[in-house]
Amino acid sequence: MMKQRRGLGKGLGTLLPDKEEVKEEKIVTDELSAHISVDSIDVNPFQPRTHFDEEALQELSESIRIQGIIQPITVRQIDGGRYQLISGERRLQASKLANLKKIPAYIRTADEQQMLEMALIENIQRENLNALEVALSYQRLMTECNLKQEELGERVGKKRSTVNNYLRLLKLPAEVQQGLQGNLIGMGHARALLGLEDDKAMEKLYRKTVNEQLSVRKVEELVRAMQMGGDEEPKPKKVSEIRREMLDLQERLAGWFGTKVLVKADAKNKGEIKIPFKSKEELETLLNRLKK
């Protein structure tokens, strides 16, 4: 977990060319791909995903065992007849679980910066990264590939506002970031918590959100209440205040309709309005009044 605080429009086609000449003895390859030994593939040091669901990985392994790999992984050739993974870590791990000896792969030429871009963008577009992993990937693309927010938005096919919303998640306290990464809260909860400037207040409301399984809307309400008065929960009105408000409303409605009106409400503002009438003529008078 990175302890960070406060801080394709072009498509993969521009980063991953369709054809690449690869010179490799002992490997029979066409213009696009080859089958290479699983043991000859080194992990991608730029892999943005930090967690893989074990159950989902086992399911993918079973699928590969039965049907094989439909989408080849992407690698680059390095020294000593070995390869370095660019994208497809889940497929590689699942293939190892399925005891495959060789795996289909696209072999590309790429320097380290291109590897970083390809790995991050491929994962952002094609993997279910959680919100914090997406935010960290965006930050890496900006800092390590010297991209501005507008350029990053073009690369990943997102609006600048969307990119900014993800980057703001990195301003959350470490405890809240961990909860977001562990799916204890969603991005909606996290964005609502960012409405509080104080880290302690964020952490306190975060714990309440997790413990009580609060909805995003409820967290937003609590944040607004804390912004206005400093209380987590809006204080309920006293019975006398509610009664006084209802009497005032009753008088105004009675004056409007020209007849007696009864208004009842509880502390949660649930209630009813009664307008009695004694004849058809009085009812028609009330209905005509409502039309005005």
UniProtKB/TrEMBL annotation:
Every ParB-like N-terminal domain range: 34-124
GO cellular component, as recorded: chromosome
Source organism, top-level taxon: Bacteria
Gene Ontology BP term (one): chromosome segregation
TM regions (residue ranges): none
Keywords: Chromosome partition, DNA-binding
Gene Ontology MF: a single term: DNA binding
CDD domains, per database record: SPO0J_N (cd16393)
UniProt key word Repressor: no
The keyword Oxidoreductase is annotated on this UniProt entry: no
UniProt record similarity statement: Belongs to the ParB family.
PANTHER family reported in the protein's UniProt record: CHROMOSOME-PARTITIONING PROTEIN PARB-RELATED (PTHR33375)
Protein name per the record: Chromosome partitioning protein ParB
Protein source organism: Jiulongibacter sediminis
